[in-house]
């Protein structure tokens, strides 16, 4: 089984009032690099990050620029999946760069649910289904034709779920979220 990770890092950070949130320091790294480092710990067939026009460095990954961030998250998903497909893979693991607490163990549980091309597995905090999510090859065409800023949310309603501690699925959208995340690294 060949799986590529697609890390979405092209958001506009509109709710973050203090510059580029992914470049903000958190526990000795930039916020966005926490998710990248976690994905890099997995023995996958490829590691792709879809970025906006930032100058942030993304080591040891294939960088795919999103020159139309205004087209929403769906554009980033489409670009990432298209890049992953060029490497002849069976599935993509889509994650968000503003989720620094997702563990390798949780991602491994998602991957363990792979059952073939129709596989669709999402994370859940016990209430909603969300990324990180694993999509088998049968979903690639649909992922590449999504539109808008809701990404693959409607698709995830059909997904098998893998529960995670809600704190693990915490994302950083606002400055207050970053401050809370910093508290977790210090505590």
UniProtKB/TrEMBL annotation:
Entry GO MF terms: nucleotidyltransferase activity
MobA-like NTP transferase domain location: 5-159
InterPro entries, sorted: MobA-like_NTP_Trfase, Nucleotide-diphossugar_trans
Alphabetical keyword list: Magnesium, Transferase
Highest taxon above the source species: Bacteria
Pfam family, any one: NTP_transf_3
Keyword Transferase: yes
Protein name (database record): Nucleotidyltransferase family protein
